[in-house]
Amino acid sequence: MKVTIVGTGHVGLVTGACLAEIGHEATCYDIDSDKIELMKRGKIPFYEPRLIELVNNNIENDRLSFTNNIREALTYSEIIYITVGTPMGLNGKVNLHYLYDAADQIAKNITQKVIIIIKSTVPIGTNRIIKERIEAVSKFEIEMVSNPEFLREGSAVHDTFFADRIVIGTDDKKAAELVEEINKPFGLPIFKTDLQSAELIKYSSNAFLATKISFINEISQLCEELGANIEDVAHGMGLDSRIGPYFLSAGIGYGGSCFPKDVSALIHTATEHGAELKILKAANLVNMKQQEVLVEKAKLRFGSLQNRKAAILGLSFKPNTDDVRESPALRMANVLIEEGVNITAFDPVSNENAKKQLGDDIDYSSSIEDALLNADMAFIVTDWDVIKNFPLSQYEKLMQTPILFDGRNCYSLEEVSQYSIEYFSIGRKGVI
Predict the structure, then answer these.
(1) What letter would DSSP give residue 184?
(2) 3-state DSSP call for residue 308?
(3) Is 4 helix (H, G, I), strand (E, B) or coil?
(4) Which partner for 122 in 35, 126, 187, 398 could form a disulfide, CB atoms 3.0-4.6 Å apart?
(5) DSSP 80
(6) Residue 211 in contact with residue 279, Cβ under 8 Å?
């Protein structure tokens, strides 16, 4: 089938490339002409494993194309995916500015009846609003489908082909059947429901996972007080099939463009409708506090941090992405700057994106070794493989005082104890 993708961020470009890979003709539209020209040349504007190979393969096979001309993008397509960003606005409310702009452009330029599939994460009821907005301008009938994405940055291509389920929400039976047909080549379980339920499934899924992370982080604090080991506690919990092992890794909290935004949005939506989501509010507060826990450990160890030199290892909110939105590393860096710390940071791919937010308040390094040189302390914030596998002997060799605060529990306590390193992690005893 011929499909149009409106918006070429993480979700849009991955969606277009993967739909092309299973045989559809995908045209990706974006208002950013520089980005479109970049992708026409087989390059992508962000880091995502396996995606560039997928893009180039389908460009070469004439199944994937790019344009900044909305009329050209919509000319032959009866299927339109909207994948624009829906960032967090004031007080946790979702900013739908980009979505409304996309809807207005579609309304002015469609030349036939279309099915509009919203993959963007949107508040409950948004699909109905978009339908009314378009039909108020266009003489053509449209049908709306909520088809939320469940992609993790850093593994988005894998998640598309190996998803647990594909959710299709619509009030039109024929539209549901057509979208099911589009997705059949993926060979994945398909769950069909109504529009509002599909919208809420996405928010509820992310909110539950965020709550699971905050829960294990609170238990990690109790482990430190009682002398228990959070890794053993989490493993023992995860053996229960009702709980499962996933999202039980204690650390310095969640970040990124999804969990913080979606939790806040769901809280805001509930408040607007007279409900109070107490558990989600607590999960939010725990996460904010958890992002500063390593700094608190450093202050307990050193007293004053003024004029100390620190290395921050990892700036992206998670490994295998260059996304620094809501990254715990940036929050930590800002707190350390306020404490008068001189910071050198390392990340394999995210230095430039971090610099757009932190500016020249810190130094940026292209190697772990350079970041650690003569440092008084080091903070592991993002568990990139290159950071997890970095030899402990190098901390001894390079640092002024080898004191390591590990926010991702990258090393075993037994391994660390073989070196002259002070080591503080999450939910485990310190190694002095």
Answers:
(1) G
(2) coil
(3) strand
(4) 126
(5) E
(6) yes
Distances (CA, A) of 350 to 259, 324, 325: 20, 7, 11
Q: What are the tokens at 326?
A: 């809501």
For 419-430, how does the pLDDT look when each residue is reduced to its tens digit (9 = 90+)? 999 999 999 999
What is this structure's pTM? Answer: 0.93
Average pLDDT, rounded, for the chain:
96
**Residue that is written with structure tokens 């970041």 in the block:** 371
The three-state secondary structure class of 69 is coil
The residues with which 116 forms a beta bridge, in sequence order, are 80, 144
Q: Which stretches of 61-164 are DSSP H helices?
A: 70-74, 97-109, 126-135, 156-161
Q: At what angle do helices 259-272 and 195-226 cross, to 10 degrees?
A: 120
Pick from 294, 281, 225: which is nearest to 253 by CA?
294
Cα-based distances in Å from 325 to 2, 33, 179, 255, 297: 33, 23, 31, 7, 24
- State the pLDDT confidence band at 76, using cuts at 50, 70 and 90: confident
Q: What is the length of the chain?
A: 432
Reduce the secondary structure of 13-35 to three states and give it as a string. HHHHHHHHHCCCEEEEECCCHHH
pLDDT for residue 90 is more than 90: no
Band (150; pLDDT cuts 50, 70, 90): very high
Helix (H) and strand (E) counts for the chain?
Answer: 19, 14
Instruction: Give Cα separations from 137 to 140, 153, 218 (angstroms).
Output: 9, 36, 51
The residues carrying an active-site annotation are: 258
| DSSP annotation string for 350-388 | -HHHHHHHHGGGSEEESSHHHHHTT-SEEEE-S--HHHH
Q: Specify whether the CB–CB gap between 382 and 315 falls below 8 A.
A: yes
The amino acid at residue 327 is: S
Integer Cα distance of 117 and 108 in angstroms = 17
CA distance 76 to 147: 22
Nearest to residue 319, comparing CAs of 334, 329, 333? 329
Identity at 414, one-letter amino acid code: E
For the stretch 25-56, pLDDT in tens is: 999 999 999 999 999 999 999 999 999 999 99
